[in-house]
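Box S1 | Example of a co-folding query
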Amino acid sequence: MSVIDFDHHHADEVEKEAVRDQSLRETDIVWNEAYGGYWVVARFEHVAAIVRDHKRFSSAAGVNHPSPVAIPALPIEADEPMHREYRKVLIPLVTAERVATFEPSLRQYIADILERAIADDRPWDVVDALALPLPVRAAAAMLGIGPDDFDDFERAVVTMNAVTVQGNEEDQRRAIEGAFAMFKLGFARARTRPSTELDLFSMLVNARVDGRAMTDDELLGMALTTSSGATSTTTEAIGFIFYHLAASPALFARISIDPSLIDRLVEEVLRIDSPVWRLFRTVLEPVSIGGVDMKVGDKVMLAFGWANHDEQRYVHPDQIELDEKRPTHLAFSAGVHRCVGLHSARLQLRLIVEELLRCADSVQLASPPAPPRSHFSTRGFDELKVWLTGRDRALADATS
Ligand code: HEM
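Box S1 (continued) | Returned holo structure for protoporphyrin IX containing FE
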């Protein structure tokens, strides 16, 4: 068994890639000494087996290690049978059919932002102008956050996401308290509305889990995971899709010529730069995985982002492959906790590429971005400056 000493909160990209490569090379699973010790699972086959084995690998003991929030983030930090009860409350809000109804308004929102960026004709920060606001807007629509609650929702979510990845513990505590205050206001307003309304706050306050109403902590845990999970992850994915198109003119040209490849591009970017690069599980029963015996209480880091680069599953895993359909990836996990927001995430990413192709002739990096930040479970750019050239401008330049 190989032993490493690696700090998943503080390692930089270079160190992480070295550990990723080592974990993928080892014949068995690696043990990391940091944070009291835990298994680092990077091989696709093992990560997939563990997420599907929820009877032996618990999420309720925390999917982050150490856990940043005092109450469980639900439904992600619940095990069966309660997990199923929590998850089913959210399902009516996140179905593919419901999400599709928001396509026209989200498309317009994206088009307006891109057209403004083209008209401005100067380096434009994808993160600030699009990747942060779009997922908040999409989440608010999907979760039925009405105009009365929107400004508070946006402020709470943006602050919370920013400090989760950048702030110190005190900032994080304050931001989470701010978000909780906002959610409590949302619950209070929802209690005055008819119980049939299709919005997150109404559905939570009217839900029955295990035959009873949810406690205050359960309500907050559900609102927290849903709003933060919907936004921080999609923000990272938007940065990456823009990055790949801006860094590779050949990729941009290929997609422009054949837009039927957009869905494949979206999946490849989610695979190659997975926004949730790792989460944890805790062993509930003695189990043997990948040649190692794990005992009850052991922590296990599931490196989704690394599993998505496993050479045993993907040929040339570090390249974007559009010619052939790749085997499925783990960017949204698998098993009972598989992401409920994947329809919304995929829709936003597809619409961005479609609108970019419609209004821009090229996208280029204005400067090389700083390496992605990844000390929390998500990984992404804090700033990504690009130049967009509009189709009209490119045509005018060509004919003048
Ligand atoms: C590109 C964007 C996204 C990525 C990469 C992503 C990734 C993930 C992953 C990896 C998990 C599984 C965790 C596990 O196995 O423990 C998950 C769960 C979850 N995601 Fe997403 N997510 C994204 C967008 C969204 C959106 C838009 C929503 C909006 C509702 C959302 C809500 C959730 C919830 C509520 C769970 C918990 C599901 C459960 O425990 O049953 N996510 N997500």
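The mean pLDDT is 92. The longest strand covers residues 360-365.
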